[in-house]
Design goal:
With 311 residues, this protein is an alpha/beta fold. The protein contains 14 helices and nine strands. α8 (166-178) links the parallel β4 and β5.
Length: 311
């Protein structure tokens, strides 16, 4: 059982702890980015890679803006960490979680499908004097470079909602469980089928006529493929929250807990960010306390399943 939030003010502040270290990373991005590349005929893997290669800085900043998602997830990660854990962050992008855990003394390997994201994380690590044990470009569906049962914790907080095919999602989960120690735990993030409604409400509520077909389609089948009419995200799968536990059981996982990262406060996350530190702490505590309730699971944009290998 997870107790009350430990120092919520500190947890809430973690989203900004590296915000001042960008010069080296930005220089690398200018060298790595692809300009004007024809997107026609690209595979799912190439689409996802190119999307994040072109948006590394935005993804880094996203968890500063999405402060509840980050702080609530970090709270539960801390609750399951050992004093010094060996952690694999697969699909960890520019390294917000990986660098934070490495700075706390954990042994962290970071892998991502985006070479630019890995380069950014390496530059950030150099800038702040944090050591990532290993960084590499890798696909969550094939972790053969990593031996069985080698990690105390595996973070898979990005890949699953970019794998439209169910068999690919199953492969990614089973690979994460394979490299997990029998005593370890893994975090798997999903994006809710209702998240596009949240997104459009927050960004363009007046465009309901032009966007309702996109949202209705996602509600029906959970799939999004970018187009001129729906350019807001890359290829993605949005899950019905009720399907998470049966899916993970099919993959061979045993549930420890499932929580909503933003909870009922998802629609107000931007407004809450401007409050005083004391007020933010109060809302963060409430988000943690209610994280596993139906209101949080169905009200959140990001839902995280914590599990271990089923014995």
């Amino acid at each position: 059982m997870v107790g009350r939030l430990r120092n919520p003010g500190k947890a809430a502040a973690r989203g900004n702890w590296l915000s001042g270290h960008r010069d080296d990373s930005v220089h690398l991005l200018r060298e790595i980015r692809h300009h004007g590349k024809d997107k026609s005929g690209l595979s799912n893997t190439e689409c996802i890679r190119d999307y994040y290669d072109a948006r590394v800085e935005a993804e880094w900043r996203r968890l500063e803006t999405s402060w509840l998602e980050y702080a609530v997830t970090r709270h539960f990660i801390a609750a399951y960490l050992q004093p010094v854990s060996t952690v694999l962050d697969i699909g960890g992008g520019p390294g917000r979680y990986a660098l934070g855990l490495a700075a706390e003394g954990h042994n962290v390997d970071l892998a991502d499908i985006s070479p630019a994201s890995i380069a950014f994380a390496e530059a950030q690590a150099r800038n702040i004097g944090v050591r990532l044990r290993q960084t590499l470009v890798a696909d969550a569906r094939d972790l053969s470079v990593f031996p069985d049962a080698s990690y105390d914790m595996v973070l898979c907080l990005g890949p699953l909602y970019h794998l439209i095919d169910a068999d690919d999602r199953i492969r990614a989960v089973r690979e994460a469980l394979r490299v997990l120690k029998p005593s370890g735990c893994a975090f798997f993030a999903f994006v809710s089928r209702y998240a596009p409604i949240h997104f459009h409400l927050k960004t363009a509520p007046g465009d309901i006529d032009s966007r309702s077909d996109v949202m209705t389609g996602i509600l029906e089948h959970g799939q999004h493929r970018p187009s001129r009419e729906a350019p807001f995200f890359t290829e993605a799968f949005f899950i019905d929250p009720a399907e998470i536990r049966p899916f993970m059981a099919e993959c061979g996982a045993e549930e420890l807990m499932t929580f909503g990262a933003e909870g009922p406060m998802a629609q107000s996350e931007d407004r809450l960010a401007g409050l005083s530190a004391t007020a933010r702490q109060g809302w963060l505590e409430l988000a943690v306390e209610t994280a596993s309730t139906p209101a949080a699971l169905y009200g959140s944009e990001h839902i995280v399943y914590i599990g271990r290998k089923r014995t």
